[in-house]
Give the backbone structure.
Amino acid sequence: MTASNVATIHSVPTPQEVLEQGEQIQQKAQPQPQPTAAVTAVPAQTSRSSPTSGLKVFWTFFVIALIIGPTVAGYVLQWKTWDIEDWALGVYGVVMLAFFLLQILFCTINRCQVASRRRNRDGASQGIRTGLLVVGYREDPVLFRQCLHSVKNLQYSNLTNFMVVVDGNEQPDSVMGTIFTEVFAANVPLIITIDFRPDAVNPSDLKMQSLVAEIQAERRPICILQPHAGKRHALYTGFQMLLAQGCEAVVVTDSDTSLDVNSVQELAATLEDPKVGAATGNVRVWNTESLIAFLTSLRYWYAFNIERGAQSFWGCVLCVSGPLGIYRGSTLNQIMNDWVKQTFFGVPCTFGDDRHLTNLVLRTGQKVKYTHLASCFTETPATLSRWITQQTRWCKSFHREFFLNVQWFHKQSIWMGGELTYHAMFPYFFMYSVLRILYTGSVWQLTLAMFCLAASTTLKSIYALIVSGNFGFLLFPLYGPLYIIGLIPAKLWAFLTLWDISWGTSARGEKPGLASRVWTTIKYLFAPTIWLGVLCAGVVYNFYRADWTVTFREQWGLIAVAGYFAALFVLYGIGRVTGLIKNSTLKEALPK
């Protein structure tokens, strides 16, 4: 069977064609792995309990309880470590401050370790044999084309295979196949359309074996179009095919993501440690045309360089990000069958695939790392409604995976258990604190709460400025109000609607009807709208109860804190007008 470099899409070969191609394959010089060995996933290993493992389980939960217990008790009972006039620091505040400082310490050490390993890397080492997988569904043509061009510019000598899996095989989906063919025309790409999903058939099925036989010896870029079922199933197909081609590791990315030239090389370097099963890199945002998108781009930096950096020090990164991650092939063979068949209360899971896949790697006891030297650019929601929808979806996957994480806290460091418990509890403590201050506290307590919010975000801004040299991080305190108004209610709504598996947003190429758009907007903005009303009513009530004739410091305190945030808004506006904060476009922002 001959390949074509045009956008003509063909189906899986017949058995006779497979035999004919098999004769051609045998003439190729390099040996290839057997299809059955690569296609059949290995069941996850289950170990029997032992006295040692039982002791570790007990010790892990004992230490977590030792930390969390006094924190909760101190919060409820209002224990204070020191109290000077109206300034006080409670046990809860001490724990939160210590947690932040430890995060800074661990992420800084991890950053230095990553840089040191790069300096001491053996230049003669070829690195692990790696395949690159891009998945997408009716992607924006400009973004997808840019993604493919960034793939062509990658620099890693042992990147042997490249594959795109399109989550759809209908006529609108063929646009991605056409773009793929145009970009890789010089490489004579192979495009295949199949009418089945590899996860839905037996590995010994004739159609599956035919597909494997066709691509097994291929080194050309391959694009597979399969029936639409969701990103998880497209990823599974890519994993199976790349492993069948003999890849020892698979780098995954999205069709709207642009990769840095060294991203694959740096990710592959993390797997030089045999204890590491997966790793992720620094995901950056290119579209900063709105305030929400700009603040999210800053938030991404903290999420990766501080939070994941600290987790990486302990080898327990909690989520390998979808736009940029690498998985060891032997690890995928152990876990990907369990992963693709995940259900929650009997319902198949449609999102959170990256977090669950990471979770299963952690379950094996392997490490998951983060390297800031591997980076990419991706898109983030630019409107409030899409941002809240995205955050609600992510929060749902966090809540769902937390119940699973608890079962193997003992297989990883205590840091993982402590941080997960912190993230699970903090939003609700924070929500309670806000309501208590607004409806039972004084104006001075409200002022102090706003001051603490400004101070904590400013400390993070200073650290980010020192590390990155980007003065835009000084505007990060503006993310605080966005967190309170949008993300806090999204977390609660996500927990209350875990049963809802809808994605919430449509593909860029799709135009849902008016009724669908209205219902989606109402569903995801309902909780934030109610919460905003409660906040506004609380502020009015707090001010109404205050005796403004004797609250001189409260007045000036409020003016000072409100003035600080107002000044940041002004600086943001000046940055936009002067061009210091760029209103990025597709052509300007993405790396060439």
Summary: Residues 1-50, 585-592 have pLDDT under 50 and may be disordered. Residues 574 and 580 are 8 Å apart (CA to CA). The chain is about 55% helix and 10% strand. The first helix runs from residue 15 to 26.
